[in-house]
Every structure is written in C-alpha cells, then in structure tokens.
Fold:
Amino acid sequence: MSDDFRSGFVAVLGRPNVGKSTLVNALVGRKVSIVSDHPQTTRRRITGVVNLEGCQLVLLDLPGFQKPFDSLTRRMQTAVDDAISEVDAALVLLNATETFGAGDRYIVQAVAAAAIPSFVGLNKVDLLDGPRLGARIEEASALCGGRDVYPLSALRGDGLADLLAHLAATMPGGPVYFPEGQHSDQPLEMLIAELVREQALRRTFDEVPHAVAVEVNGITERTDRPLVEIEAQLIVETESQKAILVGKGGRQVKAIGSAARHEIESILGVHVFLALRVKVRKRWRRDDRYLDRLI
Structure:
C-alpha cells in the first residue's frame, strides 16, 4: 500500500424507499443489500466495500430516517444516528420523483450539524425529462444550502463514476479496511436471512412486510457433494399474517423459498436446499431480547 492511499467510511442517508440500497449495490458492483418497494426494508447497517485506484470506500447503507414507534424502529434510528457521528463523509440521497419535505430537511440539518464532508445525490433522474430534471436539481441544491447536486440513476448506473471520484477525493489517508474480494462484513447467516426476507417482501401485501423477519436456524455444507442445506423460518406476529405467507396449499411459502434459493445460489456458487417454515411470534418487534438475535 502506498503512503498516499486513501480510505474512509461514508454514510448513505435518506428517507425510506429513496433508493439507498439500490445505489449501494450499484456502487459496490454486486448485491450486498436487499431491495424492495416497501419502506423499512433496510433494518440495520449494511456495509458495502468499493475498491478504487488508490482508495477504498466503505459505504454504510442505513435505515431510512423515521420517527421510532417500537423497539425495532428505535434500533433502526439509533443505527443512523450513531453512524453520522462515526463516518468520514455523508451522502444524502433525495428522490427526484417526489416533493422534498420535512424528512429531507431534517436529514440535511442532521448532516450539517455533524460537520462532516457531505454530498447530495438526486436519485431516479432517469424518470424525468430535461426541463423537469433541471428544476429538481435547483430545488435539491436550494434545500441543501446551495450545494452541488449529483444527478443519479442507481438503477441504470448514470452519474455513479463521477460521484465515486468525488467521494474518493474527500477521503483521508488510511489503511485497507477490507481485503480484496470482500464486499461486505455481513455474516453469512444474516445475508441469507435478508435474501429470504427480500422475497417475502416482494410477494406480500401491505399489512405483512413490516411484521416479517427471518431467522436462519442452521447451515450445513455437505461433504459428499457440492450442496449447502439451510434451515430458516419466516417470523410474523399474527396467525392471519402466517396464512398470507403460507398461501393456499403452501404455494406462497414455496414460491418465496424457490426465489430465495436462486438468489442464495448465485452468491454462494453451489446448489442450495432451503427448508423454509413460517412461525408466529407475537409482538416480536417490541421484544428487545429477540431483536438482539435478529438485528
């Protein structure tokens, strides 16, 4: 490593469902965070590692800013608050397709109070035409005190190279935090749980997603053939939620398991047997001891 090597941690901040996880995955170049259309998809800090020439960026994909209303959301907001006080820079992500509101202003003010280098990304610009995009960039800049705004499309990859170059230039001199080839510090059990939850979120109604968690009970690598056997359970709070996840004749949970298995196989590079069950645990989002196991 040369003496002028740069490295640092960057908090990726924004309202729920603004596209933070999609952006982090795009910048890392592989999937490290799950993605869905539901708010509260990201429940804890997810690390994504980006290696550039002479620089390593450690991106922190954080839960969306929100007012806590139970133990789960309180932990989520604490993860955001703690990260702001620890990172070398912050990337505030705004949604180009939505009106900026009090939540966006709160995030901008929180970053300003932290007195760290900050960047403003305007995501989903591919959904706007030229005149509307220009107006949104001006509005975003005004919201952030006249700062430069980086137009981005995390989905298409537009603007990412320019953003990375400016982030890298801001990083202090530092070590290589993660070895070449490591893209996240997420434990395998947690990654698998998140991939299963992602598929459950994609297939359930609005009353279910916030109450869904996944716990991996066992991972066994077979010695006689290239196969990993995984036992996991979907956790919900009510019998009615369980009925939705199981589906008629068990079709829903089978579809969730099949889709999750393909995602897990693409990451592990081996065949996977996934045994998936659905279990009711009442009020688990308010159970601190249980959350210690999940979050």
Observations:
- The longest strand covers residues 227-236.
- Residues 104 and 231 are 40 Å apart (CA to CA).
- The chain has two domains: 6-170, 188-294.
- The chain has nine helices and nine strands.
